[in-house]
């Protein structure tokens, strides 16, 4: 078993008890820990692209329901992988995307954990009534720090740096209208235009300084733009948000806000906006707290938080896939969103 999986499991266990090894307080939502130049951040505990690829191939060999497809290549020639569970073309289909930004890594770790669960009895019967698609590492070049620009003053130690942009310095989550990059072109041509997708959750990380009600958030949600989305698509997007909110907010580490800036400036190039508009896919953007590496210390979160943030991803995937599979999403109330505060940036 990989050492980072063991570490993640240990952190989750210690978070549940509230104490880290050596008597140090285990911080979850609301309390940090931040990086600020002194907290441990090490990229060697995260899956590399090669490790992820090997993991997916092994899971494909073990799981009869799983198929691994290469749907494109990155700028640097890395295969882009689509994990497919397509039991019945008449089932509703959910697409989960992780790591459009290469420094937002725990969404990938959680996606891999859930993919592994799909091969066990923990999810028995789930795949009979829903089709699941995963892109677990969209921006592999950025995740490996294999880019055509310098990475200076980045926070993390380890065998590589992780960076937001792709190899050519383009923000792939702003490229869904221009489609100037091979990653975006392949995604639109070979995934969005090929599969009949009903729901999409775009998993990201944001800076570590956002708060709600005086406590740091564990994550924030954003829907498609209300002025550029069909009513039914927008309503179903909010139902996705309701499922996630009810799954995460009651957790001891869960504390969700509304993403700042949502519903104001519209950019067709942003995934949550453009994909809902162009394809009519009900879409939720979910921003986890803190990135795994960055040149800006305020963006980075110490790795003591890796456990609950990875778990937050797994809970999101599990809750939404089950709600779509059993049809409970159709009756999901969306009124919580009316009172959900917009997160604000803490001033230190």
UniProtKB/TrEMBL annotation:
Organism phylogeny: Bacteria, Bacillati, Bacillota, Bacilli, Bacillales
The species this protein was found in: Marinococcus halophilus
Homology family: Belongs to the peptidase M14 family.
Official protein name in the record: Peptidase M14 domain-containing protein
Matching InterPro entries: CARBOXYPEPT_ZN_1, Peptidase_M14
Any single Gene Ontology cellular-component annotation: extracellular space
GO molecular function term, any single one: zinc ion binding
Gene3D superfamilies: Zn peptidases (3.40.630.10)
Cofactors named for this entry: Zn(2+)
